[in-house]
Amino acid sequence: MDKDSLAFSQRLTSIHDLDLFTAWELGEKLGIKLPKEMVIFAIEVEDVLTFGEKLTPKVEAAIPKVCELVLQELNEK
């Protein structure tokens, strides 16, 4: 994924509204050395409105696979 494939946030009312594209742009403007591209790994949740102290069983079960994918990606570089 390169910077241009990220969505741009037109509204920034709080630092919590900072999306990845805007953070990348800010880093560039501040002269921070950034990668040309990145790989993002994610685990999608079923319920984004309920918060708790523990992972749901489905999220917990997905972690080993994501870790495996991250290691594969790192070993390819």
Explain what you see:
It contains two helices and no strands. It is flat. With 77 residues, the protein is mainly alpha-helical. The protein has two domains: 1-38, no CATH class; 39-77, no CATH class.
Structure summary:
This protein has 77 residues and is mainly alpha-helical. The protein folds into two domains: 1-38, no CATH class; 39-77, no CATH class. It is 39% helix and 0% strand.
Write the layout of secondary structure elements.
Elements: H1 20-29, H2 57-76
Task: Give the mean pLDDT.
Answer: 86
How many helices? The count is 2
Q: What's the gyration radius in Å?
A: 16 Å
N/C terminus separation = 15 Å
Low-confidence runs of at least 5 consecutive residues: none
Q: Tally the beta strands.
A: 0
